[in-house]
Specification:
Elements lengths: L1 H19 L15 E18 L8 E4 L1 E12 L4 E5 L2 E10 L6 H4 E18 L6 E14 L20 E14 L4 E11 L18 E15 L1
Antiparallel strand pairs: 1-3, 1-10, 2-5, 3-4, 3-5, 4-6, 5-6, 6-7, 7-8, 8-9, 9-10
């Protein structure tokens, strides 16, 4: 396996030198002139919560982030030489582990929040001038997310170990990346931040709940790294 990995790395390095070196062979010269093109992406994510409180607290709710997985499709509409409109629907798996202060038992203090999201971002892509087979870009836009694991329809709450959030959320997104033009396809790694716009928490049935009673708002924060193939 090590030999195969080393051989693959050497082949990729030699190919990269030919395509991204000082005098590269220009690949896919007319690719960006297409009015519409399609692709797909694979990647990973790290979801977090931004929590604001009604009253000052001695100890915050601890949020442990985990690495999740993304997969989805891309539709790209060319607006002009520098701007594109993109729709990137995807399926995102994520987990956040919450630890609430003030409890003696782990049973009461810890709440794993496993989520399966269907994510619908509408983004504007601004691309810089292409240099050889490299073209950096910026991304920004808005998105709507459907949380299939929200527990929003159940009446059970944290007393029964059921943590609930709203099913639909809205966000804005900002990111950057780079287009790499190979002989037969375009590969684009990118990183993007996702920022929830509204409170997502569904409070417990008891207004004085030790889990949710003092929370003013709980909003998603996430970092996404995607590898796009077009």
């Amino acid at each position: 396996m090590k030999k195969i990995f080393l051989l693959t790395f050497l082949v990729f390095a030699l190919q990269s030198q030919a395509q991204f070196g000082k005098d590269p062979l220009t690949n896919l010269e007319n690719w960006d002139k297409q009015r519409v093109h399609w692709g797909y992406f694979l990647g990973f994510n790290s979801y977090d919560f931004k929590i604001d409180y009604k009253d000052a607290v001695e100890e915050d709710i601890a949020v442990k982030t985990n690495i999740g997985f993304n997969v989805g499709l891309i539709g790209n509409l060319r607006l002009n030489e520098y701007f594109d409109l993109r729709f990137e629907p995807g399926l995102y798996y994520a987990q956040r582990d919450l630890t609430f202060p003030g409890f003696e038992k782990t049973f009461d203090a810890e709440r794993p929040v496993k989520s399966t999201f269907i994510h619908f971002p509408l983004l504007v892509k601004y691309s810089a001038l292409r240099t050889g087979n490299i073209r950096p870009f910026l991304l920004g836009g808005v998105s709507t997310t459907l949380n299939l694991s929200s527990n929003s329809n159940t009446q059970e709450d944290n007393v029964e170990q059921r943590f609930r959030v709203k099913q639909w959320t809205n966000n804005y997104e900002l990111g950057f990346g780079i287009d790499l033009y190979f002989e037969y396809f375009k590969f684009s790694p990118s990183i993007r931040g996702v920022f929830g716009l509204k409170d997502e928490l569904i409070r417990d049935n008891n207004p004085n709940s030790p889990w949710t009673g003092n929370i003013e708002s709980m909003k998603t924060r996430a970092i996404m790294v995607n590898f796009t193939f077009q």
